[in-house]
Amino acid sequence: MHAVRYHETGGPDVLQVDDVDPPDPGQGEVLVDVHAAGVNPVDTYFRTGAYPVPELPWTPGSDLAGVVGAVGPGVEAFTVGDRVFGTGLGRTVQGSHAEQVVAPVDHVAVLPDDVSFNEGAAVALVGVTAWRALVGYADLEPAETCLVHGASGGVGHVAVQLAEATGARVVATASEQYHDHLRDLGADVVLDYHREDLESAIAEAGAPDVILDTFMDEYFPLDARVAAHGARIVGIGNTSDEARIPLGPAKSKDLDFQVMSMFNVEAYGPILDRLGHLVVAGEVVPEVAETFPLAETADAHRTVMEESFLGKLVVEP
């Protein structure tokens, strides 16, 4: 079978398509014939060596959707032929950018018949991240105001829809070219994050009770100033190793700052199950901006880091 692998860390050019033996599922694992695999910025962090992997060569890719081709010993929840989607790969186990992938059973869930493989692969990592942030940590409630930074991104565009589905009022920041689309996805107010008066514009829109921050090293100070008393602020992304929290407003407002990684979720399956139901119901629509054949995975890695788009990129083996 064919798998994208890197034999050394570096830029996208280190990715190559290798002909390798199909993997065998072990205890508590399933073999998935991959029909679609998501591409996320975190995949590039492993490839560059910023995040370590257990060994080289290594296959990148966190998300997948496909059909179970074989089951390992002890697997009872899935059978051959089941449609599944999953995430959490590419970190401690080989990733999803391959024609066949072995995945632990707690990393996958049944993909509903009404959800396409591309949609399943697109929603997995970003959906689990948004769910963990807004539902798990922030405990977002109906009628609260939720601010989503970077709302056109993979996590951001799902977070907007998830917040709207809970009955929250959604304020989003994004480039102006995506404002209409984000309103269609459920945002009540969309602000250009380039504007010089962003802080006052957020305040005018209403002090947020929950903030999802995809650039915490840049926006944590602003978040503290605009947040409502007792707000929950969840940081999921950063471009530097440190983020500053202004203690004055943080203390005076009793703010709760939480940083998280999707990879720390103990079991992905239960969240994926719920996301699948939301996609079927039309409450969450994973947007696929562009697809790539397996041989062009390097181009997908370049695009996810260098180009502007709304939603997700998907590789189709």
From TrEMBL:
NADP: present as a keyword of the record? Answer: yes
- Spans traversing the lipid bilayer: none
In this record, what's one Pfam family? ADH_zinc_N_2
- Keyword list, A-Z: NADP
Q: Which domain of life is it from?
A: Archaea
- Spell out the SMART domains in the cross-references: PKS_ER
* GO function term, MF aspect, one: adenyl nucleotide binding
In this protein, which residues make up the domain named Enoyl reductase (ER)? 10-315
PANTHER family xrefs:
QUINONE OXIDOREDUCTASE (PTHR44154:SF1)
Q: What is this protein called?
A: Zinc-binding dehydrogenase
